[in-house]
Structures are given as structure tokens and as C-alpha cells.
Amino acid sequence: MTRVFFSVLSRIVGARMIGLIMRLMTALIMPLIMATTMMAAMVVHVYAETRQDAVIGLQLEPPHLDPTSAAAGAIDQVLYANVYEGLTRFTENGDIIPHLAASWDISDEGRRYQFTLHQDMRFHDGSTLDAAAVKFSLDRARSDTSTNAQNALFQGISNITVNAPDQLTIDLKQPDGNFLFKLAWGDAVIIAPDNVDQLKQSPIGSGPFKLTSWIKGDRILLQKNPDYWGMPVALDQVTFRFISDPVAAMAAMQTGEIDAFPVFPAPENLAMLATDTRLKLINGSTEGETILAINNARPPFDQRSVRQAIAMAINKQDIIDGAMFGYGTPIGSHFAPHHPDYIDLTNAAPYDPAVARQMLADAGITDLHLTISLPPPVYARRGGEIIMAQLSQIGIKVTLEPLEWAQWLEKVFRNKDYDLTIVSHTEPFDIDIYARPDYYFKYDNAPFQSIMAELDITTDPTKRRDLLHQAQRHIADDQVNVYLFQLANAGITKTDLVGIWQHAPTQAMDMTGVYWKN
Amino acid sequence: MRVWRISPFLIASAGRRNLISGGVILGIISLAGLISFFWTPADPTIMNISNRMQPPSMAAWLGTDHFGRDILSQIMAATPVTLSVALVGVMIGMIGGIPLGLMAALIHKPFFDHVLTRGGDVLFAFPAIIMAMLLTAGFGAGISIAMLAIGLFNIPVFLRITRAAAMQQRHMTYIHSARLAGKSMPRIACEHILPNIAPVIILQASIQFSLAILAEAGLSYLGLGAQPPTPSWGRMLADSQTMIGLAPHMAIIPGLTIMLTVIGVNLIGEGLRQRLDPYRSRQANYVEMDIS
Q1: Would you say the pTM of this structure is higher than 0.90?
Q2: What CATH code would you report for A73-198?
Q3: For an interface test with A, which of B43, B47, B143 has the most A Cβ atoms less than 10 Å from its Cβ?
Q4: Chain B stretch 206-225, residues whose beta carbon is closer than 8 A to a beta carbon of chain A
Q5: Which of A55, A161, A417, A459 is the most buried (most CB within 10 A)?
Q6: What number is the ipTM of this complex?
């Protein structure tokens, strides 16, 4: 074909002319080809260079950005360790390590803590983070007018004294074996004193990342803080994207749009996603005791036997399998199984519908009709349907009431207007909530309160362990709530992204140790 | 261009074909719904978690869902719910819309007509879903709310169609003679106009019925319809949403059921249209075909 073409062509324009044209074309085309190849090589090179940013998927968007005035875990997920820092901090495994405080001395039988801070620490706005700023933040958190959601953490403090710019003394009313643990919470972070008025919109912390923008309903962007006082982080930019729809989350993971989704909204799809070699499973523990909370003040749930009957009608493994597709560990009290002082009480209320039915009859309860309020997470919505079916087996009629988070917080948590509800308590080591008589499950029990009071002033490890065992047993025997299972930290991440926490000892998405492999 | 004359028999038989096939489909589905009152292969609310997401087999003919419930039993038990919600929804629309439409057309007061039709437009601006969300916020979700929402949405539809059809009849000579005979307007509306516009309304009702089935499925999908443990096609679809990759039958079966029901209703509607359409019958049953 070509030969025919050239022979025709040569007859028209002459052979010499063709040779000229060919040479001209070569001269023109060759550099073009070379340039393209070089450009392609450059593109490949850029592509192969290690990424400096990460996109993290989260189910819930924070309502605002002030960790010192709200219980919403989504705030800490974005800001803890990334933007805000405390004197101490949690590690991935739940250990407490020094953070802003370089070291400390404990004296006066555990009543006095003398902290030495790191040198030359600055907030994102350039102001100095010194002992005065620490005193300001902690005083603000413990004051009578404080809006801190964990105000109780700071009630043991009697006095804070600034000795030098990097020296600080905190005096406690009583010895507190958990004081350093309490200081590690996201509610105990140190804020810039000048920024108090704008905490909800523009957080100014001391962390390795600072907030660059928040597109409401979509994403929050964090940028590396070049002036960070501590070890610099690997990532230049972190994007938190808020996707609550499980199908959208699945699609975002499959297309690679999102690099990690540490708490995935649809546990049923994790196994399937993990078959992709680019992705790997995150399966760790959380501090989330998932409970069927009971309004202990509302008859007939004020009777222990009724609560016991409800507990014995519930098959926990069915809920773990049916709602969470196997991710979760059954519990028998309000205590995390990975805690060293945990005791297994799952047999305190063994699954036995026949006995449960009898207990209900003995208590003189017939025709019990109750409502279960359900917040949005899948453990609650699916768990509610399963519990409804299980309770119907012992003759209890159930109405399900699906609520949005804001409605749940208002109706159930604040106004205590509910029969039963399903929720996961993700705060670490929170068994003390059972000692608060006005907490939403309305459990007012003097013996338990005295156990907690004693625990607060006990520092001896063996005695503490003993008291913790007592506490676990007490609320299990009293069957305050139905303790369902420990929420698993089940999610998915790209294989090449290293450093995403496997466990969730607190509500945090710590990006400080995250980097891309090659 | 030639005009082909098609025998009236053929038209009638096409209508009959649609009526028969639609009737068979809807008949089977309604029968399954009726049977569910007395018998289902398994209890549709009984869970068996260890036996979840089983594909169709001899033990569970249409498989099991994510809680191990029998899907066939759920489909059967959900049928009366869906059909009754759709039926009541359309009835509310007819009972509310037809009298209003007649009044708008027959009462000679432009202001009154405007108020009714614009009022209908305002109501029409809210789709059934939005209506249900508004009602749910006030009264909580449930079957009766779904019925009400679909019904409210249907009122302006019937208002419009009745008004338009009745307007055409208003100046017919037989109406004038009826008036001369001394009949009152309400009586004329009931005895003369309504029977004459009935075919149009029946057609519209069949269309609205199939839309109402879809609306009910949509509302349950969003959690605004039948509440658990009452099974519902829409909620079965919603539940299966994240499990399409794991157990496709969980989505396909309720989806197909909704589709078949709507096709059945539409076939009946089409058959009725071919029989009842006043335009067609006046056109003496010939169809124009351009074969040039």
C-alpha cells in the first residue's frame, strides 16, 4: 500500500522531492517524539514520588471545632493531637506519654504534680505556649462557669501555680492515680488564651497541623505547621472528608478517592473491600462499650428483675453478627476487655428466653410495651431491629424510634425522655458515669458511688484493681443496662499508608505518625 | 401518506390483551398478599442470624436476608401493606379532588375557581416524599402517615383532571336541557356530568395507583413508611443497599416485585385507556400510519 502510494507520489513530484520531504519530516518529528518521551518520563517520575497528603474518611462532621465545650467525638477526631495538644497524650495502645510536658515530679503523697514544659513552644498564631497558657486552659476548664463536657475530670484540682515560664505546679485535693490519664483527654487540651472567642470556628492550637479551611458539609483541610515545636510530621496536608452514606463510602474507597476510612459505616463490606490488594483491613479495639441503656428511673425498669429479664432475652452474639457482621466482643459490664483490670462477666445474664419470660411473669409484668430510641449508627439501627425481635420472644412489644444525633442528644441524653436506647460509650475508662445520679440512665446507687469515691483517692495498684473488679461486678449484678458488646475499630486503609491507628483508645484520628510507604 | 383503517375488533383485543396480562400479574401478586394473611412459608419476622444472606434454595425459595428472615414470606406479608397504602392514597385523592374539581368547574365564580385551582397548585408543588417528611416531623412515621401523604398529593391531581373534563361538559346541550328541566347544579353534576367524565377519572386513577405504589416503596425506603417489624418492599431495598455485592438477591427480589406490580397496574391502565378513551372511540377506531 505504501509502495503504491510513494510510486504514485514520485511520479507526480519526483523522487528527489520525496527525499527532501522525508528528511524534513524526520527533522521535525524526531524532536517532537523525544520531547514527548521526556515529558512522559517526567510525569511518571512525579507520579512515583511519595505522596505528601492523605484523605481520611469520617462518618460524622463536627458541629463546631471547640473540643473544650462539647461532647461530640467528631471534634476530637479531627483536632486531637493534630491541632490541639495536652500536657500528656494517648498512644495508639492507650498508654499515657508526656506531650507538652517534658517531665514531671509527683510529691506530697500524690497530691502535688510539678510539670516541666518543653522549651520554645508556640501556638499557630505565633503566641507563646508557656506555663501561663497551661494554667489559663486548665483553670478555664475547671471553673464554675466552664462549659467543658468533661468538667468532672478537673474537679480534683485545688490550685495551679506558675513557677517559671516552663515550670508549673498543680495541687490536687486528694491523691489521684488517674490524674495524668485525665490530662490526656481531648477535653484537657491547651488552647491559645487570645483565641477564646473564636474557638468554635478557628481553632488555634500548638499541634503539627493547623486548620486551613472547613467546607461545611464536605471537608476540613489541615496544613502542616512549619514552626512546630516537636518532631516534624511527614504529611504536608490532611483532608478529612465527611461521608455518612455507606454506599458513598464504599464507592470512595473503591475508586481510591479516599486513602483511609478508619471507622467504616458498613462493616458488611469490609471483607469484600479487603480482597483488593491495594487496601487492607483495620481491625482493632475501641473504648466503645455498646449498651442497651435503660431508663432506671422509669417504671417498670426501676425493678432489677425487669432489667434482668430484658438482659436475659438478648443474644449478644446475634447482635454482633447481625448488626456488625462479627466485628465486636461481647461484654458483661461497662468495661473494655483489653483493659488490664477487666473481668469477664458475660455470664451475669446468660441468654435464656424461657427464664427471662418467667422472671417477667414473677415480677407481675404483663403486656409490657416499650420504645427503643435509636441514634443513626448502624449498630443502633440494626441492633434495634434484632433486639425488637428478641424481646418479642418473651412477649415484650417494642416500638423503634429512629432519631438523628441532635434529636437523640436533646431527647434522650439531656431530657432523659426514653425507655431504652442503644449507644456506644466511646470515652476511655468511663465506668464512673454510673456514679452520677443525674446521668441519662438515672442510676442512683449509694454503694456504687462510694466504690467510685474510694477509687478516686486510691493510688495503690492492687487496691485499685480490687475496687475496679468490685465496680464492674456491682453494675453487672444490678443490671443497670444491658451491656452488649465492645465496639471494634473496624475500617479500611490503603496498604501503602502507614501509621493509621489500629486501636482507638480515645476519639482521635492521629495523623502525626502517618506517612506513605515509598 | 395513507390512512389505514384498523378493525375496531383489533383495537378492542389489544386492550383486552393488556387488561388480561395486567390482571394476571396483579392478580397473582394480590393473591399472594391475601394468602399471607393465613399462611407464609415462614414467619416473616423471625430472625435466624446464623442463616443469613442465603441465596434462593429449596429451604428458602427466595433466599434469606441479612437477619436470616425468609424473603418470600416478607414479600408476601408486605403486599397487603403496599397495596392498601396505594389504594387508600388514591381514594383520598379521589374523595377530596373530584368534588372540588366539579365545584371549580361548575360554580360560575372566577374567584372561587382561582382559589381552588391555585390552592391545588400549591399542594401539588410538594411531592409525596416532602409531604410525608412534613407529616412525619409532626406525627411520627407510619403506614397511616404514608397513606395521608400520598392521598394529599393526589387531591390536586384529581381536582385538575375533574375540573378540565367537567368544563368541557358544562356547555353541552344536554346540560342546558337538564337545567331547563329544573335540575339543581349539584344534581346535574352527579347525575349527568360525573358519569360522562368517569372514564377519564378511572384512567387517571389507574395511573395514580401505580405512582402510589412507587411512592409507598420510596417512602419506606427512606424509613417514612411501614415501620419494622412490618415488612415492606421499600425497606427491604433500603436494607439491601450496602449488601448488593454480598447477596444480590436481597435487592433484586423486592426490586423485581415492585417493578412487576407497577407493570401490572400500568397494563391494566393501558387496557382501560384503549377501551374507555373518549377521544379514541370518537375517532371511530382508526389509526393513522405514515408509510411513505
Answers
A1: no
A2: 3.90.76.10
A3: B47
A4: 223
A5: A55
A6: 0.80
